[in-house]
């Protein structure tokens, strides 16, 4: 997976470990839109807010023929705790080796308590039914983001 995704281009298929118990393969979602949101870490305040908002609006995303999927570098074990604690009804993907993060170019230098670290930049990508990238949102704020993504989906036709 060397090439990076680009707006208006087909997203290369990828397969990755999922909290659902089966690997997530993008090609399995042909015919559906996919809202793929990258977040830094399970159970942190912003990531929890974002997850809860997506979860609360899940039925509205489904009405738009869209599957919501979260992804971070956390392990499946960590994802399972996060899902159980907040009763998330969507799957979380575990990208511990950063393969998908690199494909979407979301690993960025961040400043954590005065130290420079490499981490996931909160980003969301909207993939259409033909697996083409139709939306790219970077450096987003967690609160209100799910509603913004729903509005974007409603604007697609």
Which sequence of SSEs, written as H and E, runs from N to C?
EEEHHEHEHEEEEH
Mean pLDDT over all positions: 93
Helix-strand category:
alpha+beta
What is the number of beta strands?
9
Strand order of the largest sheet: 2-1-5-4-3-8-9
What can be said about the biggest beta sheet?
A: 7 strands, mixed
| Low-pLDDT sequence parts | none
Radius of gyration: 15 Å
Identify the quaternary structure here: single chain
Residues in β-strands, percent: 25-35%
* Secondary structure: helix percent: 25-40%
- How many separate helices? 5
Gross morphology is globular
Quick structural summary:
Helices cover 29% and strands 29% of the residues.
Description:
- 29% of the residues lie in helices and 29% in strands.
- It is α+β, with helices and mostly antiparallel strands and 157 residues long.
- The strands form two sheets. The protein has a seven-stranded mixed beta sheet. A two-stranded antiparallel sheet has the order 6-7.
- The protein starts with 14 loop residues before the first strand and ends with a helix.
């Amino acid at each position: 997976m060397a090439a990076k995704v680009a707006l208006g281009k087909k997203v290369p298929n990828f397969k990755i470990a999922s909290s659902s118990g089966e690997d997530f393969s993008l090609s399995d979602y042909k015919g559906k839109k996919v809202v793929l949101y990258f977040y830094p870490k399970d159970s942190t305040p912003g990531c929890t807010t974002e997850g809860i908002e997506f979860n609360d609006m899940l039925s509205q995303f489904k009405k738009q023929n869209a599957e919501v999927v979260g992804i971070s570098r956390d392990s499946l074990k960590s994802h399972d705790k996060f899902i159980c604690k907040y009763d998330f009804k969507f799957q979380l993907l575990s990208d511990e080796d950063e393969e998908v993060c690199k494909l979407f170019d979301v690993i960025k230098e961040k400043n954590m308590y005065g130290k420079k670290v490499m981490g996931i930049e909160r980003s969301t990508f909207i993939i259409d039914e033909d697996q083409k990238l139709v939306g790219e949102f970077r450096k987003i704020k967690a609160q209100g983001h799910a509603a913004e993504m729903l509005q974007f989906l409603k604007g697609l036709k």
